[in-house]
Amino acid sequence: MKTRSLAARIVADVLKEGLSLTAALDAGLPRLESGKDRAFVQALCYGVLRHFHRLDFILARLLDKPLKDEEIKALALLGLYQLAFMRVKPHAAVAETVAAAAKKSWAKPLLNALLRRYLRERDSLEQQAQANASAAASHPLWLIKRIQQDWPEQSARIEEENNRQPPMVLRVNLAKTGREQYLQLLDQQGLAAEAVAACPAAVLLDRPAPVELLPAFAEGWVSVQDAAAQLAAGLLAVEPGQRVLDVCAAPGGKAAHILEMQPGLRELVAVDIDPARLKRVEETMQRLGLSATLRPGDAGKPDEWWDGQLFQRILLDAPCSATGVIRRHPDIKLLRKPYDIEALQTLQQTILEAVWPLLAPGGCLLYATCSVLKQENEEQIERFLAAHADAEALPMSLDWGQARSFGRQILTGDLGMDGFYYALLGKQAD
């Protein structure tokens, strides 16, 4: 009962308060002492938000009028999720969900009735949901239309991949150990894993595992990072003695990977607008035994933090819609709004324009997003190149993703990876 009531509060915080699921879980999970209970609550919350549009559609057909109490609505969604998607015995799912209403006695008969009605009419309700575009895909209609507009042939698969549980991928610190050696350590720990062909440092776990169970995690031998994100460091192709800038750097995984690959840099400067998130970069560097210059600041206003020295390489992992990582953050489907895309595109353009003068002639800038929307990706780069005679799109002859008119796009699920976009821009020498 305690687990379900907490899960309902966390889901309600996302639905009503607009909190990210990550923030809501961080605030709620410490109330539970048992690791098993925390894992159960997390699974419930992720599941409900992953399938929210379908569950909400079904719930609306079980009610005479909408539920105004967000926690009770969340409890109803949790109950439906358990009945529809989890291996929880139906009588237990119903009983525990009803009991979780606690002091709200008015809600208990309502929850009991609607969940039992779902069990009686399950086939009919699921057929109705399957006939509704938003419920069937469990995405908001505006996002379905955007994905279909950009990727008409792949849209159904993208939506399906968005609703899957994501894999857990590790980045082996090749400065400390080899990938094959680390795979052997995982095997000794009873953790089945395999190498990822597209990334020389990537390891895919058969099943997710707590980081404390990963061999030598605390000693910096390995980090958690999706294979698509690991591609950035290789694309940037840094060389000894170079000065590198990573803007919008938090939580620091890409900056750390660059330093692991090339310890002979003159300096790596990591900038992020959020001091709290920059603290996470510092913690990452400390765990991995790496050194970087950390500067809080607005990437769109370099005059506030730049020392006037040019960089030979710049990584711009731009703020974006995050539509390529919905499988990791299903709350994106609820929190992101259609008008956000235009605002994000403007912000990306502002930052790109701001940091371009910081790049030395002959240097290159890697533009990256975890988005699958063309407005934030290839259309953004096309616009930038048309406005800057000193910029050119550098070739990217690779065996992953899709070659676009500018840059390369990974769609969610391609080679098991998150959705990502990369474009490499060179600045012409004087």
In brief:
By secondary structure, the chain is an alpha/beta fold. The chain is built from 17 helices and 13 strands.
Keywords:
Rossmann fold; 4-stranded antiparallel beta sheet; 3 domains; N-utilizing Substance Protein B Homolog, Chain A; Alpha-Beta Plaits; 430 residues; 9-stranded mixed beta sheet; alpha/beta; single chain
Biggest pleated sheet: 9 strands, mixed
Average predicted local confidence, pLDDT: 96
What is the C-alpha radius of gyration, as a whole number of Å? 23 Å
CATH superfamily of the largest domain: Vaccinia Virus protein VP39
Based on helices, strands and strand pairing, what is the structural class?
A: alpha/beta
What proportion of the residues form beta strands (DSSP E)? 5-15%
Shape: globular
What's the end-to-end separation, in Å? 68 Å
Model description:
The protein is α/β, with parallel strands linked by helices and 430 residues long. The chain folds into 3 domains: 2-138, Orthogonal Bundle (N-utilizing Substance Protein B Homolog, Chain A), CATH 1.10.940.10; 169-220, Alpha-Beta Plaits; 227-427, Rossmann fold, CATH 3.40.50.150. It contains 17 helices and 13 strands. It has helices at residues 2-17, 21-28, 35-50, 52-62, 70-85, 90-99, 107-130, 133-137, 141-150, 155-162, 179-188, 227-236, 253-261, 275-288, 332-335, 338-355, 378-387; strands at 169-172, 193-195, 202-205, 222-224, 243-247, 267-272, 293-296, 311-317, 359-369, 391-393, 402-403, 408-410, 420-427. Strands 5, 6, 7, 8, 9, 10, 11, 12 and 13 form a 9-stranded mixed beta sheet that branches. Strands 2-3-1-4 form a 4-stranded antiparallel beta sheet, covered by helices on one side. Strand 2 (193-195) and strand 3 form a beta hairpin. Helix 5 packs antiparallel against helix 6 and helix 5 packs across helix 7. The radius of gyration is 23 Å and the shape is globular.
